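Input chain follows. Return C-alpha coordinates only.
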Amino acid sequence: MKLKQVEYVLAVAEAGSFTGAARQCHTVQSALSHQVAQLESELGVTLFERNSRSVRLTEAGRVFVQQGRQALEAVQRITDEVVASTGEVRGRLSMGTISTLTSPDPIELLARFHRRFPHVRVELVMEGSEKMLTKLEERRLDVAFIGVWPGETVPSSLCSRSLCNEELVALMSPSHPLTAHDKVTLGQLASCPVVDFPVGSSAHRQSAEAFAAQGLEYNVQFEVSTVQHLVAIVRQGLAVGLIPQSLSHQLTDVSTRRVDNAPQRSVRVVWPKTASPATRALLALLAVEDEGAYNGPAPSSE
Protein backbone atom coordinates (compact mmCIF):
# COMPACT_ATOMS: atom_id res chain seq x y z
CA MET A 1 0.00 0.00 0.00
CA LYS A 2 1.29 3.44 -0.96
CA LEU A 3 0.51 6.72 0.76
CA LYS A 4 -0.51 8.16 -2.61
CA GLN A 5 -3.18 5.46 -2.88
CA VAL A 6 -4.50 6.41 0.56
CA GLU A 7 -4.63 10.06 -0.52
CA TYR A 8 -6.58 9.10 -3.64
CA VAL A 9 -9.18 7.12 -1.69
CA LEU A 10 -9.67 9.99 0.75
CA ALA A 11 -10.02 12.42 -2.14
CA VAL A 12 -12.70 10.29 -3.82
CA ALA A 13 -14.58 10.01 -0.52
CA GLU A 14 -14.44 13.77 -0.03
CA ALA A 15 -15.27 14.77 -3.61
CA GLY A 16 -17.93 12.10 -4.14
CA SER A 17 -16.56 11.29 -7.59
CA PHE A 18 -13.39 10.11 -9.30
CA THR A 19 -13.45 13.13 -11.59
CA GLY A 20 -13.54 15.58 -8.68
CA ALA A 21 -10.88 13.61 -6.82
CA ALA A 22 -8.54 13.65 -9.83
CA ARG A 23 -8.97 17.40 -10.14
CA GLN A 24 -8.29 17.83 -6.41
CA CYS A 25 -5.17 15.65 -6.60
CA HIS A 26 -3.89 17.29 -9.82
CA THR A 27 -3.79 14.03 -11.75
CA VAL A 28 -5.73 12.37 -14.55
CA GLN A 29 -8.81 10.33 -13.68
CA SER A 30 -7.56 7.15 -15.35
CA ALA A 31 -4.41 7.11 -13.21
CA LEU A 32 -6.33 7.75 -10.02
CA SER A 33 -8.94 5.10 -10.81
CA HIS A 34 -6.20 2.58 -11.60
CA GLN A 35 -4.47 3.20 -8.27
CA VAL A 36 -7.72 2.83 -6.31
CA ALA A 37 -8.60 -0.39 -8.18
CA GLN A 38 -5.10 -1.72 -7.52
CA LEU A 39 -5.49 -0.98 -3.81
CA GLU A 40 -8.89 -2.70 -3.70
CA SER A 41 -7.36 -5.76 -5.36
CA GLU A 42 -4.51 -5.78 -2.85
CA LEU A 43 -6.91 -5.50 0.11
CA GLY A 44 -9.42 -7.93 -1.35
CA VAL A 45 -12.35 -5.56 -0.66
CA THR A 46 -14.46 -3.04 -2.52
CA LEU A 47 -14.06 0.46 -1.14
CA PHE A 48 -16.63 2.23 -3.33
CA GLU A 49 -20.04 1.41 -4.76
CA ARG A 50 -19.93 2.82 -8.28
CA ASN A 51 -22.75 3.61 -10.69
CA SER A 52 -23.25 6.05 -13.54
CA ARG A 53 -24.41 8.83 -11.22
CA SER A 54 -22.55 8.54 -7.94
CA VAL A 55 -19.78 6.97 -5.92
CA ARG A 56 -20.45 5.88 -2.35
CA LEU A 57 -18.28 4.32 0.30
CA THR A 58 -18.90 0.71 1.28
CA GLU A 59 -18.64 -0.29 4.93
CA ALA A 60 -15.06 -1.38 4.26
CA GLY A 61 -14.49 1.98 2.57
CA ARG A 62 -15.73 3.89 5.61
CA VAL A 63 -13.33 1.97 7.85
CA PHE A 64 -10.48 2.60 5.39
CA VAL A 65 -11.20 6.35 5.26
CA GLN A 66 -11.22 6.61 9.04
CA GLN A 67 -7.94 4.75 9.39
CA GLY A 68 -6.44 6.41 6.33
CA ARG A 69 -6.96 9.91 7.73
CA GLN A 70 -5.19 8.89 10.91
CA ALA A 71 -2.33 7.34 8.95
CA LEU A 72 -1.76 10.41 6.77
CA GLU A 73 -1.98 12.67 9.79
CA ALA A 74 0.60 10.54 11.62
CA VAL A 75 3.01 10.85 8.70
CA GLN A 76 2.52 14.62 8.53
CA ARG A 77 2.87 14.83 12.30
CA ILE A 78 6.39 13.39 12.12
CA THR A 79 7.56 16.34 10.03
CA ASP A 80 5.65 18.92 12.06
CA GLU A 81 6.87 17.61 15.43
CA VAL A 82 10.50 17.35 14.29
CA VAL A 83 10.41 20.95 13.02
CA ALA A 84 8.62 22.09 16.19
CA SER A 85 11.44 20.63 18.28
CA THR A 86 13.70 23.32 16.78
CA GLY A 87 11.30 26.06 17.90
CA GLU A 88 9.60 26.59 14.52
CA VAL A 89 5.92 25.83 13.88
CA ARG A 90 4.90 24.58 10.44
CA GLY A 91 2.16 22.48 8.88
CA ARG A 92 -1.55 23.23 8.69
CA LEU A 93 -4.08 24.76 11.03
CA SER A 94 -7.70 24.10 10.10
CA MET A 95 -9.98 26.07 12.43
CA GLY A 96 -13.75 25.91 12.64
CA THR A 97 -16.12 28.39 14.24
CA ILE A 98 -19.79 29.09 14.68
CA SER A 99 -20.94 32.18 12.79
CA THR A 100 -22.05 33.96 15.99
CA LEU A 101 -18.65 33.91 17.69
CA THR A 102 -17.56 37.39 18.78
CA SER A 103 -14.93 36.76 21.45
CA PRO A 104 -12.40 35.86 20.36
CA ASP A 105 -12.91 37.36 16.92
CA PRO A 106 -12.01 34.33 14.75
CA ILE A 107 -10.67 36.37 11.81
CA GLU A 108 -8.51 38.57 14.01
CA LEU A 109 -7.25 35.52 15.92
CA LEU A 110 -6.23 33.75 12.70
CA ALA A 111 -4.57 36.91 11.39
CA ARG A 112 -2.57 37.27 14.59
CA PHE A 113 -1.62 33.60 14.44
CA HIS A 114 -0.53 33.93 10.81
CA ARG A 115 1.69 36.92 11.60
CA ARG A 116 3.40 35.00 14.37
CA PHE A 117 3.62 31.67 12.53
CA PRO A 118 3.83 32.53 8.80
CA HIS A 119 4.89 29.02 7.76
CA VAL A 120 1.60 27.47 8.89
CA ARG A 121 -1.13 27.21 6.25
CA VAL A 122 -4.29 28.46 7.93
CA GLU A 123 -7.82 27.41 6.94
CA LEU A 124 -11.19 28.54 8.29
CA VAL A 125 -14.68 27.03 8.06
CA MET A 126 -17.94 28.26 9.59
CA GLU A 127 -20.42 25.50 10.39
CA GLY A 128 -22.77 24.22 13.07
CA SER A 129 -21.29 22.88 16.29
CA GLU A 130 -22.39 19.29 15.61
CA LYS A 131 -20.70 19.15 12.21
CA MET A 132 -17.50 20.59 13.61
CA LEU A 133 -17.40 18.05 16.46
CA THR A 134 -17.69 15.27 13.88
CA LYS A 135 -14.90 16.79 11.79
CA LEU A 136 -12.69 17.08 14.87
CA GLU A 137 -13.19 13.39 15.63
CA GLU A 138 -12.41 12.55 12.00
CA ARG A 139 -9.31 14.81 12.16
CA ARG A 140 -10.64 17.04 9.37
CA LEU A 141 -10.44 20.01 11.77
CA ASP A 142 -7.65 20.86 14.19
CA VAL A 143 -9.56 23.15 16.53
CA ALA A 144 -13.08 24.59 16.72
CA PHE A 145 -15.09 27.19 18.61
CA ILE A 146 -18.56 25.84 19.33
CA GLY A 147 -21.71 26.91 21.16
CA VAL A 148 -23.54 24.34 23.31
CA TRP A 149 -26.07 24.19 26.14
CA PRO A 150 -24.28 24.96 29.47
CA GLY A 151 -23.14 21.69 31.03
CA GLU A 152 -23.30 19.75 27.76
CA THR A 153 -20.25 17.54 27.31
CA VAL A 154 -18.11 17.00 24.22
CA PRO A 155 -17.00 13.55 22.98
CA SER A 156 -14.43 11.86 25.21
CA SER A 157 -11.92 11.74 22.35
CA LEU A 158 -11.70 15.55 22.42
CA CYS A 159 -10.39 18.16 24.83
CA SER A 160 -12.31 21.34 25.55
CA ARG A 161 -12.12 24.55 27.48
CA SER A 162 -15.01 26.86 28.42
CA LEU A 163 -14.57 30.44 27.22
CA CYS A 164 -17.84 31.96 28.47
CA ASN A 165 -21.50 31.39 29.26
CA GLU A 166 -23.99 33.94 28.03
CA GLU A 167 -27.71 34.56 27.73
CA LEU A 168 -29.57 34.95 24.47
CA VAL A 169 -31.57 38.13 23.91
CA ALA A 170 -34.63 38.75 21.75
CA LEU A 171 -33.93 40.45 18.44
CA MET A 172 -36.73 42.36 16.68
CA SER A 173 -37.35 45.20 14.28
CA PRO A 174 -37.50 48.68 15.87
CA SER A 175 -41.22 48.90 15.01
CA HIS A 176 -42.15 45.59 16.66
CA PRO A 177 -44.83 45.92 19.38
CA LEU A 178 -42.62 44.12 21.92
CA THR A 179 -40.14 47.01 21.88
CA ALA A 180 -42.60 48.79 24.18
CA HIS A 181 -41.36 46.46 26.96
CA ASP A 182 -37.99 46.74 28.71
CA LYS A 183 -37.93 42.96 29.08
CA VAL A 184 -39.97 40.25 27.37
CA THR A 185 -41.10 36.76 28.33
CA LEU A 186 -40.88 33.50 26.45
CA GLY A 187 -44.66 33.49 26.45
CA GLN A 188 -44.72 36.77 24.55
CA LEU A 189 -42.18 35.47 22.05
CA ALA A 190 -44.17 32.24 21.61
CA SER A 191 -46.97 34.27 20.02
CA CYS A 192 -44.59 35.65 17.35
CA PRO A 193 -43.13 34.08 14.20
CA VAL A 194 -39.52 33.13 14.97
CA VAL A 195 -36.41 32.81 12.80
CA ASP A 196 -33.74 30.33 13.94
CA PHE A 197 -31.03 27.96 12.79
CA PRO A 198 -31.94 24.45 11.54
CA VAL A 199 -33.62 21.84 13.74
CA GLY A 200 -30.97 19.61 15.29
CA SER A 201 -28.37 22.36 15.61
CA SER A 202 -27.13 23.41 19.04
CA ALA A 203 -28.34 26.95 18.40
CA HIS A 204 -31.89 25.73 17.75
CA ARG A 205 -31.85 23.29 20.66
CA GLN A 206 -30.80 25.94 23.18
CA SER A 207 -33.89 27.99 22.41
CA ALA A 208 -36.33 25.11 21.86
CA GLU A 209 -35.47 23.55 25.23
CA ALA A 210 -35.98 26.86 27.02
CA PHE A 211 -39.48 27.19 25.52
CA ALA A 212 -40.29 23.54 26.25
CA ALA A 213 -39.27 24.01 29.90
CA GLN A 214 -42.02 26.65 30.14
CA GLY A 215 -44.56 24.43 28.39
CA LEU A 216 -44.52 26.69 25.34
CA GLU A 217 -44.47 25.90 21.63
CA TYR A 218 -41.43 27.19 19.76
CA ASN A 219 -42.96 28.72 16.64
CA VAL A 220 -40.09 28.66 14.11
CA GLN A 221 -41.41 29.93 10.79
CA PHE A 222 -38.09 30.81 9.14
CA GLU A 223 -35.08 28.47 9.18
CA VAL A 224 -31.68 29.88 8.13
CA SER A 225 -28.07 28.74 8.11
CA THR A 226 -26.29 32.07 8.73
CA VAL A 227 -26.65 34.83 11.29
CA GLN A 228 -26.67 37.36 8.45
CA HIS A 229 -29.90 35.90 7.07
CA LEU A 230 -31.39 35.72 10.55
CA VAL A 231 -30.74 39.44 11.12
CA ALA A 232 -32.03 40.34 7.64
CA ILE A 233 -35.36 38.59 8.29
CA VAL A 234 -35.70 40.36 11.63
CA ARG A 235 -34.93 43.76 10.06
CA GLN A 236 -37.78 43.25 7.61
CA GLY A 237 -40.19 42.64 10.49
CA LEU A 238 -40.95 39.08 9.36
CA ALA A 239 -39.99 37.42 12.64
CA VAL A 240 -38.17 37.77 15.94
CA GLY A 241 -34.95 35.94 16.74
CA LEU A 242 -32.79 34.92 19.66
CA ILE A 243 -29.09 35.72 19.49
CA PRO A 244 -26.14 35.84 21.93
CA GLN A 245 -26.02 39.08 23.89
CA SER A 246 -22.41 39.69 22.82
CA LEU A 247 -23.43 39.68 19.15
CA SER A 248 -26.27 42.17 19.63
CA HIS A 249 -23.84 45.06 20.25
CA GLN A 250 -22.55 44.77 16.67
CA LEU A 251 -25.93 45.12 14.96
CA THR A 252 -27.72 48.19 13.63
CA ASP A 253 -31.32 48.90 12.59
CA VAL A 254 -32.65 46.28 15.01
CA SER A 255 -33.76 46.29 18.65
CA THR A 256 -32.93 43.84 21.43
CA ARG A 257 -34.64 43.03 24.71
CA ARG A 258 -33.60 40.82 27.58
CA VAL A 259 -35.73 37.73 28.14
CA ASP A 260 -37.05 36.20 31.36
CA ASN A 261 -35.72 32.62 31.73
CA ALA A 262 -33.64 33.27 28.63
CA PRO A 263 -31.97 30.44 26.69
CA GLN A 264 -28.24 30.24 27.39
CA ARG A 265 -25.20 28.97 25.57
CA SER A 266 -21.68 27.97 26.52
CA VAL A 267 -18.90 28.91 24.13
CA ARG A 268 -16.10 26.35 24.13
CA VAL A 269 -12.86 25.79 22.26
CA VAL A 270 -12.43 22.12 21.36
CA TRP A 271 -9.46 20.19 19.95
CA PRO A 272 -8.23 16.56 19.61
CA LYS A 273 -6.28 15.05 22.49
CA THR A 274 -3.28 14.57 20.22
CA ALA A 275 -3.03 18.21 19.15
CA SER A 276 -0.66 19.23 16.37
CA PRO A 277 2.12 21.78 17.01
CA ALA A 278 0.08 24.40 15.16
CA THR A 279 -2.97 23.68 17.31
CA ARG A 280 -0.90 23.93 20.49
CA ALA A 281 0.49 27.24 19.28
CA LEU A 282 -3.01 28.62 18.65
CA LEU A 283 -4.20 27.50 22.09
CA ALA A 284 -1.20 29.20 23.68
CA LEU A 285 -1.94 32.36 21.73
CA LEU A 286 -5.57 32.20 22.87
CA ALA A 287 -4.41 31.88 26.47
CA VAL A 288 -2.27 35.01 26.03
CA GLU A 289 -5.35 36.91 24.90
CA ASP A 290 -7.57 35.53 27.65
CA GLU A 291 -5.28 35.43 30.67
CA GLY A 292 -2.30 37.72 30.08
CA ALA A 293 1.27 36.44 30.01
CA TYR A 294 1.41 32.73 29.31
CA ASN A 295 4.48 30.53 29.25
CA GLY A 296 3.11 27.05 29.87
CA PRO A 297 1.70 24.26 27.68
CA ALA A 298 -1.65 24.34 25.94
CA PRO A 299 -4.73 24.17 28.20
CA SER A 300 -5.55 20.72 29.50
CA SER A 301 -8.74 18.81 28.79
CA GLU A 302 -11.78 19.17 31.08
